[in-house]
Fold this sequence. Notes:
Layout lengths: L1 H5 L4 H21 L7 H9 L6 H35 L11 H15 L5 H23 L8 H25 L3 H7 L9 H20 L1 H9 L1 H6 L4 H23 L5 H13 L3 H25 L8 H19 L6
Helix pairs in contact: 2-14, 3-4, 4-9, 4-10, 4-12, 4-13, 4-14, 5-6, 5-7, 5-12, 6-7, 6-12, 7-8, 9-12, 9-14, 10-14, 13-14
Amino acid sequence: MTQQKRRIFPFLIQLIVGLILLVFFFAIAMVFGAADTTLKEVWLAITSQGKIDDTVTMIREIRLPREIGAIFIGAALSVAGAIMQGMTRNPLADPGLLGLTAGANAALAFAMALLPALNYFGIMFACFIGAAIGALLVFGISMLQRGGFSPLRLVLAGTAVSAFLYAIADGIGLFFKVSKDVSMWTSGGLVGTSFGQLQIVIPTILVGIFIAILLSRQLTVLSLSEEVAVGLGQNTLLVKMLLFIVIVVLVGTSVALVGNLAFIGLMVPHMVRAFVGTDYRHVIPMSAIFGASLMLLADTVGRTINAPYETPLAAIIAILGLPFFLVIVRKGGKAFS
């Protein structure tokens, strides 16, 4: 019955509606803020080349790159969360809860302390390495006992590893006197996003999402049962390695741009599966669209709720995500243990 309800609207219709909502939230994000603007000014900022007035310049140089960054970071974290949940068959899997963002944060602190002249591409590469180390630590600890990736064991391991890695990052910041720089970078916001950063971030995220879509059929089979995947002739080790690389790339890129954001990768895939079902050929593209829309909405709320001051984006996401996390623990966690 549930699957029939999900199939009332074809996936193409759902995709089009999702894209329309994304455009709507983008328009809202561009219009509202500490300085409210009009759709005409937004259109001029996007389409015109020369300087028209200060408002249009502000939209083009400050607000536009920020909201474009929100779109791609929301998509990246949501797709990473969907892949993690499918790979581990764990409803609590999320990059921010399982050590990836903490690892990227620690690597970022190392890079800023030891290589202060490192460019943005180098910082992003350091975040890739840190995210991989954080994930490997969590998965390794959770598999020390028999039973594999149970939700409880993964979350406990993720909490412990994240606390450890955040402590390392704080210690590095204090010892090398770069704590202020690290905190400003990892505060979980899109302030200061530039087109120069987006030129590196956007292609990297697009490649990661494209590979995830190519592997979505294999991920669907893997999410059902590893035994079924092997029985169908799937090279599960290769698929897992490729998907792990995609997760690391998406999360590392996100941390390099906006810092630590938990719960996006947890919430969005659950929301999406309520509409499109459990086929990851549908879950992954819709997760990217829903995640981008949610990030735009959260950033708009953060900029307007206490204007002209900003409420941290990480706080907005946490307020939404913590109750969602508790509901999943109560209703869904045991079914995946």
